[in-house]
Design goal:
The complex is a heterodimer of chains A (418) and B (141). Chain A has 418 residues and is of the alpha/beta class. Chain A has 12 helices and 14 strands. Helices cover 25% and strands 22% of the residues of chain A. In chain A, the strands form 2 sheets. Chain A has an 8-stranded mixed β-sheet. In chain A, strands 2-3-10-4-5-9 form a 6-stranded mixed β-sheet, with helices on one face. The N terminus and C terminus of chain A are likely disordered. Chain B is 52% helix and 0% strand. In chain B, helix 2 packs across helix 6 and helix 5 packs across helix 6. Chain B is globular, with a radius of gyration of 15 Å. The termini of chain B are far apart. The chains are: A alpha/beta (418), B mainly alpha (141). At the A-B interface, loops of A face helix 1, helix 4 and helix 5 of B.
């Protein structure tokens, strides 16, 4: 498996995954799963433990609605009866990623009236982090919700750090939103660092490969002048250019993709990028958060809320409202736009600790399974907009399974079949 | 809440008066729907609801069931609250697309599946009337 940095794409296509699949059958060298770099220290081409990708590995399909709110998350305060309600909902596809920063804002507002106790309505990732941030500030906290995590929509996310995913529409969000988003994203990022390396890997990093037959370019979404309607006039965003794209504001701390030379590409494609991607292992992370909540004396009360007036019956005088998509009906906030997404989950394969993206499809190996997505690249942020159907559609997921399996097949090494 | 402020105020006023009215006229234990209405609701349920909530209304890990815990969450409230929720939020893929008469049938069906006694008078498609009926829990059988 000699390699050369000057080798061109056709040769690279023949040279891949060979270290593992060619020399050691379908098994990896012990300890080589963390990253290609680890295997390189043993000599030869970087190599990865191949993921087993097929229907025989499928254990779950999940579908969920992201609560995109046109103006970005609602963090406003209002009074209901004699209760002070601080909103913390509408985080699009960025709830997990922005949770700590958003909770800091909401709890900060709650603390301004010097409460001793606090109610949190909702127990997804936003409610739970809000509760913990309040406890860490010394408050007695009760969560009121229909469901406790994991039976919340949050738990049906994919679990990768995506702080800018469907977080707002640029126009309705206004000029100041970028700064607020950046503050929340940077705050959250630092907080996630405090969970790294803990038992069970609640929050972890892995290498993420983006492989392609064509040179990889960052996709941009210039406005289409032919589209004359927008969210304000049509009630739904009409094109990608309406969405806020803010991720570049934190690229100084969040690892960015680097182009891989053919000799460094473990896959049978002429082009590849690698980045380091942070992700959340839902079972370990949610267990850790719930444990902290209850260890600090937190209480949970099962309750279904029908209207804002119900909040007046909550004993605590200060309430953080974190019901996510449910706020659309509970608070009659019609600026929340459903954005449907779905994932398939394969048996966990911890020895293959990396992510792979190919065209519109992706695989992310986590402790709680390998998550598969198949997102139409031509739709971008518009994929799933306005769709509140939460029933999974297996067909595109099965298509992606079939389409990605060859990336790991030994035949791809010799024949360049990918 | 730029867009929802007025709605919110209106909704608050409505709901506060709703609860007061409902508490004055608790009708727990009385038959509040007709058996035929529930049967019609079952037919609608099979087509519009069962794909998510399940043929037996048991839901899933991710989708709320419409029995047991469901009643714990809705009991003690005006049946009008449940009617309003079904009418505005369901079916989730196409909220608000069912006619009120069908929403009343669905509520009747759900109540029958939760053990509430059927009578001869249908649940009215009349929001004021629905607000006067309080949902009473039914002991398990």
């Amino acid at each position: 498996m000699a390699s050369s940095a000057k080798r061109g794409p056709p040769a690279a296509r023949r040279a891949v995954l060979g270290g593992v699949l060619g020399a050691a059958g379908s098994l990896a060298l012990p300890g080589a799963g963390r990253a290609a770099d680890a295997a390189r220290q043993l000599g030869g081409r970087p190599r990865l433990v191949p993921m087993r990708v097929g229907l025989d590995q499928l254990i779950d399909v999940k579908c969920c609605i992201r609560p995109l709110r046109a103006a970005g998350p609602n963090l406003a305060a209002e009074t209901v009866g004699n209760r002070l309600v601080i909103h913390n909902y509408g985080h699009g596809g960025s709830g997990w990623s922005l949770s700590w920063g958003s909770a800091e804002v909401a709890v900060g507002k709650a603390l301004s009236v010097l409460p001793k106790s606090l109610a949190v309505v909702g127990c997804g990732i936003i409610g739970l982090t809000s509760a913990i941030v309040a406890q860490r500030a010394g408050l007695n906290v009760t969560i009121y919700a229909r469901e406790l995590m994991p039976r919340t929509r949050s738990f049906r996310a994919s679990g990768s750090f995506t702080p800018g995913s469907r977080i707002a529409l640029t126009g309705p969000a206004g000029a100041g939103f970028g700064d607020q988003w950046e503050q929340m994203a940077r705050f959250s990022w630092k907080m996630f660092r405090t969970f790294l390396g803990m038992p069970g890997d609640p929050v972890a990093f892995g290498d993420s490969y983006n492989v392609s037959q064509k040179p990889i370019e960052r996709r941009t979404w210039p406005g289409d002048p032919a589209i004359t309607t927008n969210w304000e006039t049509a009630g739904l965003p009409q094109q990608n250019a309406e969405f806020a794209h803010l991720d570049s504001r934190i690229r100084d701390i969040v690892p960015q993709p680097v182009d891989l030379a053919p000799a460094d590409n473990p896959f049978a494609t002429p082009f590849a990028q690698r980045s380091s991607q942070m992700h959340f292992n839902f079972p370990a992370y949610s267990h850790l958060l719930l444990s902290e909540f209850f260890e600090r004396g937190g209480r949970f009360t099962m309750r279904n809320f029908h209207s804002p007036a119900d909040f007046a019956a909550i004993p605590e005088k200060v309430i953080i409202h974190a019901t996510g998509y449910a706020a659309r009906d509970l608070w009659q906030d019609r600026t929340i736009i459903p954005v449907r997404g779905q994932t398939a989950w394969l048996v966990p394969q911890p020895e293959a600790n990396y992510a792979l993206r190919f065209n519109n499809m992706s695989l992310l190996s986590k402790a709680d399974g390998i998550v598969l997505m198949n997102n139409n690249p031509d739709l971008g942020d518009m994929l799933g907009v306005g769709d509140s159907n939460e029933l999974p559609n297996r067909a595109p997921l099965e298509e992606a399974l079939a389409a990605m399996a060859p990336l790991f097949a030994p035949l791809a090494v010799a024949g360049g079949a990918v | 809440m730029r867009h929802g402020g007025l709605l919110l105020v209106a909704g608050l006023a409505l709901t506060v008066s709703t609860l007061a009215t409902a508490q004055r006229s608790r009708e727990a234990g009385k038959a509040i729907y007709a058996a035929s209405q529930a049967s019609e609701g079952a037919r609608i349920y099979a087509v519009r609801c069962a794909m998510c909530h399940g043929r037996t209304l048991d839901g899933s890990v991710e989708i709320p069931g419409l029995k047991g815990k469901f009643m714990a969450n809705w009991a003690g409230r005006p049946v009008g609250d449940l009617f309003d929720y079904v009418a505005q939020a369901m079916p989730q893929p196409a909220p608000g697309t069912l006619a009120d008469i069908d929403n009343a049938r669905l509520v009747a069906f759900i109540l029958s599946e939760n053990g509430l006694t059927a009578g001869s008078v249908p649940l009215a498609v009349d929001r004021a009337a629905l607000r006067r009926i309080v949902l009473a829990p039914v002991p398990p059988r």
